[in-house]
Input
Amino acid sequence: MLAVGIVAEVFGPHGEGFPGFDFALCADRPGPVPTDLGVPLSVAHGLDRLAGADLVIALPGAGFRTPPGPAVLDALAAAHERGALVAAHCVGTFALAAAGLLDGLRATTHWRFAGLLAGRHPEVTVDPDALYVDEGRIVTGAGAAAGFDLCLHLLRREHGAATANAVARDMVLPSHRDGGQAQYLAAPVPGDGHDERLAEVLAWARENLHEPLPVAELARRAVMSKRSFARRFAAATGTTPHAWLRSLRLSAAEELLETTDLPVEEVARRVGYGSAAVLREQFVRRRGVPPRSYRRSFSRTP
Output
């Protein structure tokens, strides 16, 4: 039920200014479907509904250790073959693997079942740490609440950062989480004054992206040595300060490119890059296109 709720919330109605999606639940046998909460879910559509879908998401289920029936596998393969974007998160990834859609690709699933997926499908490169893996027309996500990460990534990829950020704000969620599943497996950082200071520094950094923000300055504001700051930062976020800042800056640049007509040089300055050339280099490396091409695809300005 969590997985159904996540997908329905992200791709459900969010009011004016948001994309309107034709959302439907499908099953090989329409009708009441049992759920892990004991409340049956009424599914109105059969697999024929997949034939016109632009996006098909295979949801996790308790019976994932047994491959779906041939009709389900054929429907997933047919959707992919005709050009639909096919995704799955948590143990829903097992259905895509059983359909042969992950052969030769990277994929992820819930960390607890990553070994099982790798052992059962050696032709798939399983990344047990990633929150999601994008392989073009196949996208897989990690378990439980990482379904939000997967769905928001799909929304960001197809409709731009401004839309994904707005939907995330509507749901009171971060639009993008840095790091991987590993950050949620380790013991939590001990609760002390350092934690509160770290949270304050991260909030300050978000509001001051136009500044250089060297690690030494962040550590000073947290009243820690650089080494202690880096260690606590990694424990709390699963990534490094440099990677976290880069992701934050690129996301802010995306939104400015979509929602303003500011010159790229000014966008670069506002998100903390010394020049448009540096922003372009990072954008091409991390997003695959230069900033101006991104703006042409997603700009909301007249």
Notes: The first helix runs from residue 2 to 10. The two ends are 41 Å apart (CA to CA). The longest strand covers residues 85-89. The CA atoms of residues 26 and 223 lie 54 Å apart.
